[in-house]
Design brief:
Helix content is 51%, strand content 8%. The chain is of the alpha/beta class and 412 residues long. It has four domains: 2-86, no CATH class; 91-145, no CATH class; 159-285, Rossmann fold; 292-406, Rossmann fold (3-Layer(aba) Sandwich). The strands form two sheets. Strands 1-3-2-4-5 form a five-stranded mixed β-sheet, with helices on both faces. A four-stranded parallel β-sheet has the order 7-6-8-9, with helices on both faces. The N and C termini lie far apart (55 Å). The chain binds iron/sulfur cluster (2 copies).
Length: 412
């Protein structure tokens, strides 16, 4: 696939890191050239490769602008895996992927501690002492991207189990994404409300992290282990659909079959699970329209998470949902499908580039004149909210589910 690149440079216009840095090493063509040099033995594996390999957002925008459709993001993930094997990994990632993300209860406990640190100002003390650097080169600066943390996690208020709904027949499994659970439980509650209107039963799952952070880092084995655990849970329960309101989780759950070799017995189960996965956006457009209620006029724009637009081809659907909400004037965001620079934990190691990309996004948001910026990925919400906060803009950043819930009347 590396050989497919004809060096035309068309990827330059679409690549956020290239537009932010202007460096050839920061665009798909340069990244593919680097991988080619490694394959051909013209370049040795060393710590010098950390920066070029981990500076890619994995947003996939280059591939959509590339005639041979070179899958640069996938190639970079493969190269990251090789880097971890040949050069080494950071201890913090082993702790995260093997001892924290597979255990939702531990993650919730850590989130409580982080919330206490942030909300009480203690993280500022830790930052001043330089302690936060263990989480990533730029963590001391990027830690401020997260504003106040919620004081609870979703499954502390709604433990795993079955909730009765007002709909007919449909049984939905609600996959709880880590970001929604910890960073945005209010929006997750709104999603639960929407699902209960549509289904007879909503089962809040005891799932762990979907595995995407490990996969993106190049630790594909850790991602497979997380996926295997979730597949066992999801395939054992008789849901008609498995819905998640995190577009990044939804895209990765749909990708589960690709994680396992055809001969692996988990492959068939992964296929069966992936076929039932729906992004919240798909669930809403496929359900009868919610009963609308009187609501004041607002101007809303929408940011496409990379994992919704390029990851799942969900482009028209969220716009259709928003435009149909009562009182909403929908305005299209210029470059709506450009990555916001959030890209999971990108800013922890590439704060300056992430901020340049974010500035461009917020410039575009301002052009719309919108008072509400909606999206469907919790990592994007955190990043966009920071962009708005930095400029003191009177713009609310929220999840689509919150707007839907606020602007529809309960049935029954
Ligand atoms: S990655 Fe695609 S768009 Fe970029 S230089 Fe290569 S062929 Fe051209
Ligand atoms: S995946 Fe995104 S950041 Fe990486 S090379 Fe392609 S466009 Fe640039």
């Amino acid at each position: 696939m590396i050989a497919m690149c004809n060096r035309c440079g068309f990827c330059q216009v679409a690549c956020p890191t290239f537009r932010a840095t202007g460096h050839e090493a920061g665009v798909a063509r340069g990244r593919v050239a680097l991988l080619r040099a490694l394959r051909e033995g013209r370049l040795a594996w060393s710590t010098d490769l950390e920066e070029p390999l981990f500076a890619c957002l994995l947003c996939g925008a280059c591939t959509t602008n590339c005639f041979p459709a070179v899958p640069t993001a996938d190639l970079i993930v493969e190269a990251r895996e090789e880097y971890l094997e040949k050069v080494g990994r950071k201890r913090i990632h082993g702790l995260l992927f093997e001892h924290l993300l597979p255990y939702p209860e531990r993650l919730r406990r850590v989130a409580r501690a982080v919330a206490f640190g942030k909300n009480s100002g203690l993280s500022g003390v830790a930052r001043a002492l330089g302690l936060l650097r263990i989480f990533g080169r730029d963590f001391p600066r990027s830690e401020k991207i997260v504003g106040r943390m919620p004081g609870y996690a979703l499954r502390e208020r709604f433990p795993p189990g079955v909730l009765e709904g007002g709909g007919e027949r449909l049984r939905i499994g609600y996959f709880v994404g880590c970001g929604m659970e910890i960073m945005n439980p209010v929006a997750a509650e709104a999603s639960l409300g929407i699902l209960r209107e549509a289904a007879m039963e909503v089962h809040i799952l005891e799932n762990a992290c979907c595995g995407l952070p490990a996969w993106s880092y190049g630790d594909r084995e850790a991602a497979r282990k997380l996926a295997a655990g979730n597949i066992e849970i999801l395939s054992a329960l008789p849901f008609d659909r498995i819905v998640t309101d995190c577009s990044s989780c939804a895209a990765f759950l749909k990708k589960y079959p690709d994680l396992f070799e055809p001969a692996d017995p988990l492959r068939e189960k992964a296929n069966e699970v992936a076929a039932r996965v729906r992004d919240m956006v798909e669930q809403v457009v496929s359900a009868p329209p919610p009963r609308s209620k009187e609501a004041g006029r607002i101007i809303v724009t929408y940011h496409d998470p990379c994992h919704a637009s390029r990851g799942q081809d969900l482009v028209a659907e969220p716009r259709k949902i928003l435009a149909a909400l009562p009182g909403v004037e929908y305005r299209e965001l210029p470059e709506a499908d450009w990555c916001c620079g959030g890209a999971g934990s990108y800013a922890l190691s590439h704060f300056d580039t992430a901020m340049k990309i974010l500035e461009r996004k917020i410039d575009n948001v301002e052009k719309t004149g919108a008072g509400v910026l909606a999206t469907s990925c919790p990592a994007c919400i955190v990043q966009l909210a920071y962009g708005v906060r930095r400029r003191n803009l009177p713009i609310r950043v929220c999840h689509l589910s919150e707007l839907i819930r606020e602007r529809s009347a309960p049935t029954g």
